[in-house]
Amino acid sequence: MMNILSIGLVVLIAYVWMGRGFLSSFLNLVCVLIAGGIAFAVWEPWPTRAMRAIPGTRILVSNDQIQIVRNFVYMNKGWAEANQEATQRLMRSLIQAQEFIAANPAEAAAQVARFLRLQIQV
């Protein structure tokens, strides 16, 4: 009986992690570590927080030249068709946000820093 509960718990945790993208990110990290591609990797905001909390910490390699970050928007087709006004407003707001970031990078960074409770280094 305990084995069934344990398996159920593991499946439940895996299901929750899959919904948040954590499982695929974690599996990718494990594969890269096993292959010897990197020794350690973290995602924002943890590198920034570590650099501020631990004196002398520095980032050896960033993903600036390695990875092109893309964001995708997924919607349930039935919901999007039934809620066209909300769908269009969401898409317009995402476009406006991108345009704001491109036109005002310093102010955008300040807003993100305030949201993440981080200080911007000058």
Write structural notes for this entry.
- The chain has helices at about 1-20, 20-35, 45-55, 75-80, 85-105, 105-115.
- With about 120 residues, the chain is an all-alpha fold.
- It has a domain at about 1-40.
- α5 (about 85-105) packs across α6.
- The mean pLDDT is about 75.
Lay out the secondary structure:
Elements: H1 2-20, H2 22-35, H3 46-53, H4 77-82, H5 84-103, H6 105-116
Helix pairs in contact: 5-6
Name the shape in a single word: flat
Query: Largest sheet at a glance?
Result: none
What is the helical fraction, as a range of percent? Answer: 55-70%
Distance between the termini: 58 Å
Beta-strand residue percentage: under 5%
Q: How many strand segments?
A: 0
**Mean pLDDT over the full residue set:** 77
Please give the count of helices: 6
Oligomeric state of this protein = single chain
> Would you tell me the structural class of the helices and strands?
mainly alpha
The SSE string, one letter per element, is HHHHHH
